[in-house]
From TrEMBL:
<dbReference type="GO" id="GO:0004190">
    <property type="term" value="F:aspartic-type endopeptidase activity"/>
</dbReference>
<feature type="domain" description="Prepilin type IV endopeptidase peptidase">
    <location>
        <begin position="108"/>
        <end position="212"/>
    </location>
</feature>
<dbReference type="InterPro" id="IPR014032">
    <property type="entry name" value="Peptidase_A24A_bac"/>
</dbReference>
<dbReference type="Pfam" id="PF06750">
    <property type="entry name" value="A24_N_bact"/>
</dbReference>
<keyword id="KW-0511">Multifunctional enzyme</keyword>
<dbReference type="GO" id="GO:0008168">
    <property type="term" value="F:methyltransferase activity"/>
</dbReference>
<keyword id="KW-0808">Transferase</keyword>
<dbReference type="InterPro" id="IPR050882">
    <property type="entry name" value="Prepilin_peptidase/N-MTase"/>
</dbReference>
<keyword id="KW-1003">Cell membrane</keyword>
<feature type="transmembrane region" description="Helical">
    <location>
        <begin position="199"/>
        <end position="217"/>
    </location>
</feature>
<comment type="function">
    <text>Plays an essential role in type IV pili and type II pseudopili formation by proteolytically removing the leader sequence from substrate proteins and subsequently monomethylating the alpha-amino group of the newly exposed N-terminal phenylalanine.</text>
</comment>
<dbReference type="GO" id="GO:0032259">
    <property type="term" value="P:methylation"/>
</dbReference>
<feature type="domain" description="Prepilin peptidase A24 N-terminal">
    <location>
        <begin position="16"/>
        <end position="91"/>
    </location>
</feature>
<protein>
    <recommendedName>
        <fullName>Prepilin leader peptidase/N-methyltransferase</fullName>
        <ecNumber>2.1.1.-</ecNumber>
        <ecNumber>3.4.23.43</ecNumber>
    </recommendedName>
</protein>
<keyword id="KW-1133">Transmembrane helix</keyword>
<keyword id="KW-0489">Methyltransferase</keyword>
<feature type="transmembrane region" description="Helical">
    <location>
        <begin position="229"/>
        <end position="249"/>
    </location>
</feature>
Length: 250
């Protein structure tokens, strides 16, 4: 019991900092900027941020979401990412398992979160994040799952999305599914396995459709087939749900 409490405290203390780092990765990788060596600075005035400006969650609240130097608004999605990373740690703890499994699940959720936010923010799924997810999924499969089922799930996931991408382009003469989604389906398929893969894709499709309808209704227009949609985000959310809770419920 003491070790479980210590693990929970450690995860919850580290989670906001992890979310802050994920925000840096999401903001810089699509721009081709260095993630490690470059100091954090205001995008508007380029003033380097002081340590007091880098405290996760608290700095944003204390500054009321604005730069201390020029008063420019700090993108609120950075705060949401820090809060969501903390929520992901709570979910990993709630899902249960041994300490190693909880840590792996937290890492998986953090990477799924980073990919989802990157897709929503940039309509991109950076290769470095997909590859990092693949490494964690591989570790999870080796320790806790059936490698054969994982390989089959990865092949079915990536293969089916590749087929959908090629078929849509042939029929409509334009891209209907991003290559990033095809790459992402390899680790997602490995994590869910071949039997839960259809459920995961169905949940993701329903979430994407509902979000598109809601956003379209708010904007006062119907769905536009040419409008790009961030399908990677609902794929990541559906995978987290199926991986952590569906298997344990059957």
């Amino acid at each position: 019991m003491p070790s479980e409490i210590a693990l929970a405290v450690l995860l919850l203390l580290c989670a906001p900092a992890v979310g802050s780092f994920l925000g840096v990765v999401i903001d810089r990788v699509p721009r081709g900027e260095d993630v490690v060596a470059r100091r954090s600075a205001c995008r508007a005035c380029a003033r380097p941020l002081a340590p007091r400006d880098l405290v996760p969650v608290l700095s944003f609240v204390a500054r009321r979401g604005r730069c201390a130097s020029c008063g420019a608004a700090i993108p609120p999605w950075l705060l949401y990412t820090e809060l969501a990373a903390t929520g992901a740690a709570l979910v990993a703890l709630a899902a249960g398992g041994g300490p190693l499994q909880v840590l792996l699940n937290a890492g998986l959720l953090w990477l799924l979160l980073a990919l989802a936010v990157s897709d929503l923010q940039w309509l991109r799924l950076p290769d470095v994040l997909v590859a990092s997810l693949g490494l964690l999924v591989a570790a999870h499969v080796i320790l806790f799952a059936d490698p054969g089922a994982a390989v089959l799930g990865a092949a079915l996931g990536a293969g089916s999305f590749w087929g959908l991408r090629a078929g849509y382009r042939r029929l409509r003469g334009r891209e209907g599914l991003g290559l990033g989604d095809v790459k992402l389906m390899a680790p997602l398929g490995a994590l869910t396995g071949p039997w839960d893969l259809p459920l995961m894709v169905l949940l993701a499709a329903l979430v994407a459709l509902a979000a598109a309808l809601i956003l379209g209704a708010r904007a006062g227009h119907t769905l536009d087939a040419a409008q790009p949609l961030p399908f990677g985000a609902p794929l990541c959310a559906a995978t987290a749900l199926v991986h952590l809770f569906w298997v344990g419920a059957i």
